[in-house]
Design brief:
4 strands, membrane, globular, 9 helices, oxidoreductase activity, acting on paired donors, with incorporation or reduction of molecular oxygen, reduced flavin or flavoprotein as one donor, and incorporation of one atom of oxygen, iron, mainly alpha, arachidonate monooxygenase activity, metal-binding
Length: 202
């Protein structure tokens, strides 16, 4: 099964590489406002200026496709749950979406900028019911914390409770309440107070 999965991944990568070689396609992709995951990887350059190897590309795509889909499905389920249990907010999202799209169009990335209330509700649901409750990272540089404690780089695993961060009353007023206004423009939260799918390099 793993070999079949890897073959599928490699085939997808090779097809996309071939498509990007077609005349004008690469420039079209570079002009896009939002790139898909595979295009980001194919256009990425490492520190030495070289592209990712086929092995590295396959590893990244396999991780994204066959592991991360679970957190996405979980996130969507919790968003739907939060809206179902808060019908007032659900109604407002429905009105916002129908006002923008009518009854027939599909939502695209470009529409999200025009749906501020729905976006606030999505973020609030992911704050309350984060798909990734915690994460660990190995330090790439030494760090000193505000209390004076420090950790060296290397083999030190730092664990962050994303659940604790998202439910911290110092970061969020009334953190246990479903309140989309936590994400209203001009709200004072720190940019790293909201990490629904963790953050930083993997």
């Amino acid at each position: 099964a793993c070999q079949l999965t890897h073959q599928h991944t490699d085939r997808v990568i090779q097809l996309r590489k071939a498509h990007l070689q077609e005349e004008g396609e690469l420039e079209k992709v570079r002009r896009k406002r939002h790139l898909d995951f595979l295009d980001i990887l194919l256009l990425a350059k490492m520190e030495n200026g070289s592209s990712l190897s086929n092995k590295d590309l396959c590893a990244e795509v396999d991780t994204f496709t066959f592991e991360d889909h679970n957190t996405t499905a979980s996130g969507i389920s919790w968003i739907l749950y939060a809206l179902a249990t808060h019908p007032k907010h659900q109604q407002r999202c429905q009105e916002e979406i129908q006002g923008l799209l009518g009854d027939g169009a599909s939502i695209t990335w470009d529409h999200l900028d025009q749906m501020p209330y729905t976006t606030m509700c999505i973020k609030e649901a992911l704050k309350l019911y984060q798909p990734v409750p915690g994460t660990g990272r190995e330090l790439s540089t030494p760090i000193t914390f505000p209390d004076g404690c420090s950790c060296p780089e290397g083999h030190v695993e730092v664990v962050l409770s994303i659940y604790g961060l998202h439910h911290n009353p110092k970061a969020w007023p009334n953190p246990e309440m479903f309140d989309p206004s936590h994400f209203a423009s001009g709200s004072a939260q720190h940019s790293h107070a909201f990490l629904p799918f963790s953050g930083g390099s993997r």
